[in-house]
Amino acid sequence: MKELVISNLRESADIKLHMAKESLDDIVQVVKLIQRAFKSGKKLLIFGNGGSASDSQHIAAEFVNRFMINRKALPAIALTTDSSVLTSIANDLSYNDIFSRQIEALGNKGDVAWGITTSGKSANVLKAFEVAKSLELKTIALSGSNINKLKKNVDHIIKVPSSSTQRIQEAHITVAHIICELVENAFVDSGTAK
């Protein structure tokens, strides 16, 4: 049992250390993109399925409320939270439309669409990126190692070098926290550190 614990911790740590080398530039570009969007009065629309839906809500809360400092609220919306919208779209149209329809309704040119998909092939996430691109939103994906279907409509892909869902999810929330911290640092003058 202890060997399995150690093995899982090592695997998770190794993936994150690999990302520190391979994904550093991508993470920095995403931070700058989100900072520019917020400073220009644009908003962040975040979405994903299952655990990635929870991550979307978690990340949106960090921006709207605070992460590490008290500062002005930043406009981030998780597209995973309105059960009436989600279920009506899934029922009347298709489950594949649950995020794209919201982007069509809420997204404006220059806003940022941030999709999270461990598989890299979630149909509703891919469709959301397609609509976001057509509306001239900037696009970000957090994914696992399979990014082939994301490349067409995503400006910035942060790839976790793994096919293990749990390892990908662990890396996603770590990367998201790093992004939150660095974006928030650009707004330090609008609040006080805790």
- Gross morphology: globular
Low-confidence stretches: none
Give the proportion of residues in helices: 40-55%
The biggest beta sheet is recorded as: 5 strands, parallel
CATH topology: Rossmann fold
**CATH class designation:** Alpha Beta
What does the average pLDDT come to? 96
What count of helical segments does DSSP give? 7
Strand residue percentage: 5-15%
Counting DSSP E segments of at least 2 residues, the number of strands comes to 5
Within CATH, the superfamily carries the name: Glucose-6-phosphate isomerase like protein, domain 1
In what order do the strands lie side by side in the largest sheet? 2-1-3-4-5
Q: Would you identify the CATH architecture?
A: 3-Layer(aba) Sandwich
Number of domains: 1
The N- to C-terminal Cα distance equals: 40 Å
What is the H-and-E element order? HHEHEHHEHEEH
**Rg on CA atoms, Å:** 17 Å
What would you say this structure looks like, in words?
The structure is a single chain. The protein is of the alpha/beta class and 194 residues long. It has a single domain, classed as Glucose-6-phosphate isomerase like protein, domain 1 (Rossmann fold), CATH 3.40.50.10490. It is built from seven helices and five strands, in the order ααβαβααβαββα. The chain starts with a helix and ends in a 9-residue tail after the last helix. The relative contact order is 0.19.
Briefly characterize the structure.
The chain is α/β, with parallel strands linked by helices.
